[in-house]
Amino acid sequence: MPEGSKIALTMAEGTKAFVGTSASPFATATECGIVIRNFCPMNYHSRDSIPKEATNLMYEKLEGKFELLRTNDAFMDYVNARLQACWKRTRGNWSRYWKNNGGKTNPELARSKRKPGCRQEAWDHMCDYRELEKTQKYSDQMEANRAKQVNISRGGSRSLANHTFQLTNPETHMPPSPLQLYHKMHYNAAKQGWLNDDSRLAYENIIQHKQVAMEKLISEGTTVTTSMEHGIEKEAIKSVCGRKKTIQSGWEVGVGPVLRKKDRWMKSIAKSTQRDSSENEVLRNKVITLEAEQKRDKDKYEKMFKFISTKFPDFENTIATQAVDEGDSDNTI
Fold this sequence. Notes:
- With about 325 residues, the chain is mainly alpha-helical.
- The protein folds into three domains: about 10-145, no CATH class; about 160-240, no CATH class; about 280-330.
- It contains 14 helices and six strands.
- The protein has helices spanning about 25, 30-40, 50-60, 75-100, 105-110, 120-130, 135-145, 160-165, 180-185, 195-220, 225-240, 245-250, 280-310, 315-330; strands at about 10, 20, 185-190, 195, 250, 255.
- Strands 1-2 form a two-stranded antiparallel sheet. A two-stranded antiparallel ribbon has the order 3-4. Strands 5-6 form a two-stranded antiparallel ribbon.
């Protein structure tokens, strides 16, 4: 890239995710992770409790390589979500290191074996938190919950929105169907095939739901379009794999985190988060010019109407009477 230029980030329409070639370098495993590990104070038990000064510093470090649209709430909300994911992953790595060194059975031993690259103050703070009875109960419950997960995915750190972007046909610009995306996330032909029996059974149930819905529409004489078929597949995945509470949860099965109607930044979201192009600027100027002309014409009409009314006092009554007569003539059979 030219010297001084920065990498642009594009947000998928209607979805809280960056897509394109710049999404992966920005995501969890790379730039955001580096910024979190080097500049984020880890002696806090939640991401929201981190001081604003530290967050602004992380923004500045990211702006060294990427274009951050600081005034776009939707854009920055996803940036914060990526930083949150990296913060959570870093804390998780520390917790695993603490457990692997006897943290649950011998906390003092784990405390003495500080994780490489971790500051002593932050490590002591994390050990204090892990040794709390409340934290241990919460950790055990989360482990039990994760063990119940059966319909796992092979999507990796790349978001579902970015997988969809990568699978979109470059010639027709047609995105993959929800069923194709589900198959890719749960089936690996080069290895074991289906990740597990639950993924395979869910896929078969999704196909059955789709067939029932398609047969119903065909029997009613409805011509099923591609967009309608994709919608049927989407509803089938929801009914088999998850709940339909997208407005409340902000998560949609087969899509991931989505924009909610009640989100505070919905008004600022746009189809593209890139800076305005010259074409958009020209169109905006045309709209402004047309609005100004319309206002001038309106003012001119009002002045003319006022002048005629002054010279001919019965002008308004004549216009009103003529309008009524014309209306009566229209209703005459």
